[in-house]
Amino acid sequence: MRSLKLTFAALLAMVAIAFVAPGSQAAAGKYVALGDSYTVAVGTKTYDNPDDPCRRGPTSYPRLWAAAHQDVAFVEAACSGATTADVMNTQVGQLTQDTSLVTLQIGGNDVGFVDVLKNCILTADDADCIAGVDAAKAAANSTLSPALSKTYSAVRAAAPSAKVIVVGYPRLYTIGGDCGILGLSDKERSALNSAADTLADIMAARSKEAGFTFLDARPVFDPHTICSGNDEWVTSLEWEKLNESYHPNVEGHRDGYLAALNPLMG
Asked: Which of helix, strand or coil describes residue 226?
C-alpha cells in the first residue's frame, strides 16, 4: 500500500510539471547592463526616445543579447554620460542578489574623454590636442583607477554570484590608413589611440583584481577602426551630430561587441 501511495504521488508530480502554464517558468537568470554611452545606442542613430538623455535603443549590444536570450530577465541600467559615480549612485542599485550576469562599461567620462576629443577636433594645434590627451591619461591613472576599484567592489557586493564582464573601449583610428591629410593629423590620432590603450590597461588590471572578466575591445575593433579601409564599426566625426561621433555604430555593436561577448556571456 505504501509503495502504491508513493507511485501515485510521483504521478501527481509529473502531471503538475507537465501542465505548468506557458510563460510561468522562472527566468533562467538575470542580466543587468551597466555603463555609459558606449553601452547604449549612441552612434547607432536609432533610439527608443530621442529626447531621453540616456539615449537607449534597440541595436545596442546588451539589447541584442537580451533579445536572443528571452528566457533571461533583463535590466538596462546604463545611461549616456555616466561616470563611475553615476554607476555607484544610480545603477548599482538595480543589481540584486539573484543577478547572474553583468556587463559593465565605464571610465571614459571620468577622464573627460569627450572634451578631449572635441578639443582635438576643434584645434589646429597638434601640441594642444596631445597635451589634452596626456592630461586625460594622467587622470586615468590618478583618479579613474581607484574609482574603478570602488565601483567593481560595489558591483560584487550587490551581485555576489554574478558573472561580471568589464567591457573595454576600442582604439579609434588606423594610423597611416586611408583618411589622407584631412581632419586630424596622425600625431593626434596616435595620441587618441594611446588614451584607449591607457584605459584598457587600467581596466584590465582592476578587473583582474576584482575577479572579473575583461573584454579588450582593441583587437576586436582594430580591423574596423576609422581610416582602416574596411567597414568601419565606429562613427567618424559628424559636424551636424557631434554627440553621435566616435561611438560604435550598428555594426560595431552587433559584429564587434556582441560577437566578442557571446562566448563570454554564454
From this structure: strand
